[in-house]
Write a structure and sequence with these properties.
about 400 residues; single chain; globular
Length: about 400
């Protein structure tokens, strides 16, 4: 008679989780075991994962830390779990995701099935023609700052499965191993590169931001792709009021907005997109841009590396949005191409797309945040605005 296990986890579920890990590939973790090496004793390795998870004795190994260079000269920490740990995380994700997915806000697009950054851009573009002001938000070190207790409360709200809650707690606190072999304790955050990290991050922001916005500002629309957010406002005064309220809310949840080198927050009024004449059909007008955006959405590839707009770590929503909006906003342009009350160049920012691919390290599970910022508009000496200035 087989020994009874405290947690009911089917072997079939573990097998399906392995199939997903295999499809996503990725590098070895701290144990140095590659996917090919793992498959040399596939049956035995999968049995170990199932046996330990079912008995409650599974302890996640440390996460291998890899520093990914950024265009601004800094680095982004990426955590690489072992192959076996990726299988275990996928088991939990396959159980937890169907429970939380139906609850997510319709304007949340990151790490969700059948949704992409281009979907968010298509909605943002349409709203920009009807509402003049937008706020571009960039949360500082988001994945490294998520409070563990708030994530665990959110998970517990959606499932009573003790083993799911147990292993989420253990993954959140799994140490990080640096290249020199030193182990670092983690008291907050969830490692970028983990299989379950994107889902936990999305669940956290669902309550920290999405639901709070719906309660506090029910008439204000936004699009969120992970921690990359665009908020639409009717006036500059409203935008600044909303921005300060968001700043306070994020502080309550243990987060803060990113700062530029001048220590001014990136989460600011981005610019005013022209809404006038939106109902008139004319060459180059909103109707034409609508068709451009729809065409881009229809042609998006099924998969992509870092920098692919529908993948985490790709271009920010504002970067993608500028691709389907007028490149020239100047005083002599028609009213539908003119922003009459745009802010200064130092207050108009966008997320710079990194160029380094990390698919080979973490597979397609990795969760990466937006990168450095740079001005995207400047005032002409003769008046008007030129968008795209470096």
């Amino acid at each position: 008679m087989s020994e009874a296990k405290p947690f009911k986890i089917s072997k079939r579920l573990v097998w399906e989780a392995y199939q997903r890990v295999r499809a996503n590939r990725g590098a070895a973790g701290v144990d140095g075991v590659s996917l090919a090496a793992f498959e040399k004793d596939l049956k035995g390795n999968l049995y170990k994962v199932w046996n330990r998870m079912s008995s409650g004795s599974y302890l996640p190994p440390p996460v291998r830390l890899v520093e990914i260079p950024k265009d601004n000269g800094g680095t982004r920490p990426l955590g690489i779990p072992t192959i076996a740990d990726r299988v275990a995380q996928t088991v939990v994700k396959m159980v937890l995701e169907p429970l939380v997915e139906p609850c997510f806000h319709p304007d949340s697009y990151g790490y969700r099935p059948k949704r992409s950054a281009l979907d968010a851009v298509a909605v943002a573009r349409k709203r920009c023609w009807g509402v003049d002001w937008v706020i571009d938000l960039d949360i500082k070190a988001f994945f490294d700052s998520i409070p563990h207790d708030l994530v665990e409360r959110a998970v517990a709200h959606h499932t009573e499965l003790a083993w799911v809650r147990l292993y989420v707690s253990r993954w959140l606190r799994a140490p990080v191993e640096r290249p020199d072999g030193i182990l670092m304790e983690r008291t907050k955050g969830t490692p970028q590169g983990g299989v379950v990290s994107p889902l936990l991050a999305n669940l956290f922001l669902h309550y920290a931001f999405d639901m709070w916005m719906a309660r506090t500002f029910p008439t204000i629309h936004f699009e969120r792709f992970a921690d990359d957010v665009i908020v639409h406002c009717r006036s500059e005064a409203e935008a600044r009021t909303v921005l300060e309220a968001i700043r306070g809310r994020l502080a309550e949840c243990g987060l803060e907005l990113h700062s530029t080198k001048s220590e001014e927050p990136v989460g600011r009024v981005l610019c005013e997109f022209p809404a006038g004449d939106q109902h008139q059909v004319r060459p180059g007008g909103p109707e034409n841009y609508s068709r451009v955006a729809d065409g881009v959405h229809q042609k998006q590839p099924a998969t992509g590396g870092l920098g692919s707009p529908h993948e985490p770590g790709g271009a920010g929503l504002d970067e993608l949005l500028r691709a389907v909006l007028p490149l020239e906003v100047r005083s002599g342009a028609p009213s539908y191409q003119r922003g009459s009350r745009a802010l200064g160049a130092t207050e108009i920012q966008a997320v710079q797309t990194p160029g380094t691919s990390i698919d080979a390290l973490a597979g397609k599970h990795r969760a990466t945040g937006p990168q450095s910022v740079r001005p995207v508009a400047a005032r002409r000496a003769t008046g008007g605005w030129r968008v795209g200035a470096g």
